[in-house]
Specification:
This is Phosphate transporter. The chain has one domain. It is an all-alpha fold. Helix 4 crosses helix 10, helix 6 packs parallel to helix 10 and helix 7 crosses helix 14. The chain is built from 16 helices and 2 strands.
Length: about 500
């Protein structure tokens, strides 16, 4: 009996060891498989997009080009989700007003809603008039040029995301179309005045976004943060700022997000914004008064008053981005579908609903699978954000687009949002230096800070600043060169 028990115990011990080995193996397998999960789901979505195109067009050989275009259109949409959407959600996450998972959930819903409910039903196939359609020799040449533009733009945005640089997906498409157009029809095919305006926007977008964000932060600091009674100041100014936000977003969405329902000119959009802004201001006054009851007179208390407006602004930015930028992303795909279906090409084409669905769901999947890296970069790695600073970034993004529309400038939402983050960071540096100088004048015997220590205390990380600026500058030429090469490869394979 004793021998049996001993044998039984040995057997159980061996079994336990084997089970431990199995559990270690299972954990190791999960650890190895986790990085492959995202690309696997992305690949499945691209295949599904190709199958959708096949269902709509049929599996005939002449439709293979549309099926291939749908696959690359899905790839482009995934990359937009991974890179572009971070600009809307990053500030709210960096300010701890939203968790990463909460931000992704809100962005998925509002990006998709913006794309499907208010996305432009007509898109400029040559991406804002960069290439003259008359220069294309045939519909086939046009199709392969658009295919090259789509592939190169998607590859460039993918590379930028991997490096950790938020770039303009619209500029990537612009560069792709330009490069393929030059490869297909020569330098004369490009509308150079339009390209000059786009190049000017590289500087105008971030500078304007940064200046407006810095101006609002200066206003909040002087009128609220540096006041003796911060809560009393907040009761007065937070409703005004919420009213400005509501008015700016109402104008922005009326101008950019309602193309499918009706065409609204700038004066009408501003009138709508003014009416809704005043209404929001009046509604917010009692809400902020009630929310501020019992709060201590310190900066930490102010953060709670800006939390909800910041979340709302992030959601509205996502809706507007979905409405405005998805069409740019799926533009080359829509152009290919039109050319394949009708055997001709035009300046503007309608976007089929199934193409918009690929764009909307692709952005959502891309954000969910690959977005956290860029959200963290924009939200916390460039400069430290709190709800007040993040609110200035969101407000600046909406106002800058309205000003740019009024001036007729082609601007990038990515450049505006990231420029606003830089603007907030550089204003904080300037403000901190000014206050330090003032304290040194007041107390001459105060300890002076060494230049090395002053450099270390910079509030904007210079390495990220240089990486992002470099990525912005080379986006159009890099996408153009890749697109030209891809066009030559595709032409050689097809012929």
């Amino acid at each position: 009996m004793t021998d049996f028990n001993k044998h039984d115990a040995d057997h159980l011990e061996t079994l336990d060891r084997d089970l431990h080995r199995l559990s270690y193996l299972e954990n190791a397998t999960q650890y190895v498989a986790r990085p492959m999960m995202g690309p696997g789901i992305a690949l499945a979505f691209m295949v599904l997009a190709g199958l959708s195109a096949a269902i709509f067009f049929g599996f005939e050989p002449q439709n293979y080009v549309v099926i291939l275009a749908a696959v690359f259109g899905a790839y482009m949409a995934l990359n937009i989700g991974a890179n572009d959407v971070a600009n809307n959600m990053g500030p709210a996450v960096g300010a701890n007003a939203l968790t990463l998972s909460g931000a992704i959930a809100i962005a998925v819903v509002f990006e998709s809603a913006g794309a499907l409910l208010a996305g432009g039903d007509v898109v400029s196939t040559i991406s804002k008039g960069i290439i003259a359609p008359s220069t294309m020799a045939s519909a086939d040449v046009f199709i392969w040029a658009m295919m090259a533009a789509l592939i190169s733009a998607a590859l460039w945005v993918n590379l930028a995301t991997w490096v950790g640089a938020p770039v303009s997906t619209t500029h990537s498409v612009v560069g792709g179309v330009m490069g393929a157009g030059i490869a297909a029809a020569g330098l004369s095919a490009v509308n150079w005045p339009t390209m000059s305006a786009i190049a000017a926007s590289w500087v105008i977008s971030p500078v304007l976004g940064g200046a407006i964000a810095a101006a609002f932060l200066a206003l909040i600091k002087s009128r609220v943060i540096y006041q003796d009674d911060k809560i009393a100041a907040a009761k007065k100014w937070v409703p005004i700022l919420v009213g400005i936000m509501a008015g700016a977003f109402a104008s922005y969405l009326a101008l950019k997000g309602l193309k499918r329902i009706m065409k609204i000119d700038l004066p009408t959009a501003l009138a709508i914004g003014l009416a809704l802004g005043v209404a929001a201001w009046l509604v917010t006054i009692p809400l902020i008064r009630r929310q501020s009851e019992g709060l201590e007179n310190r900066n930490k208390s102010l953060k709670t008053l800006f939390g909800i407006p910041l979340v709302i602004s992030a959601a509205l930015l996502s809706f507007a981005h979905g409405a405005n930028d998805v069409a740019n992303a799926v533009g080359p795909l829509a152009a290919i579908v039109h050319a394949a279906e009708y055997g001709s090409f035009a300046d503007k084409v309608a976007i089929p609903m199934w193409v918009m669905i690929i764009g909307a769901f692709g952005i959502s999947f891309g954000l969910f699978l690959f977005g956290p890296k860029l959200i963290r970069m924009v939200g916390s790695q460039i400069t430290k954000l709190n709800p007040m600073r993040a609110y200035c970034v969101s407000l600046s993004a909406a106002i800058t687009v309205i000003i740019a529309s009024w001036l007729g400038l082609p601007v990038s939402s990515t450049h505006i949002a990231v420029g606003a983050v830089f603007g907030v960071g550089f204003f904080r540096e300037w403000d901190a230096a000014k206050r330090m100088r003032a304290s040194t004048v007041a107390m001459p015997d105060a300890q002076r800070i060494a230049p090395e220590e002053r450099r270390r205390r910079k509030l904007v990380r210079r390495s990220h600043f240089m990486t992002i600026i470099a990525a912005w500058v080379i986006t159009v030429p890099a996408a153009a060169i890749m697109s030209g090469l891809i066009f030559y490869i595709l032409s050689a394979v097809v012929h």
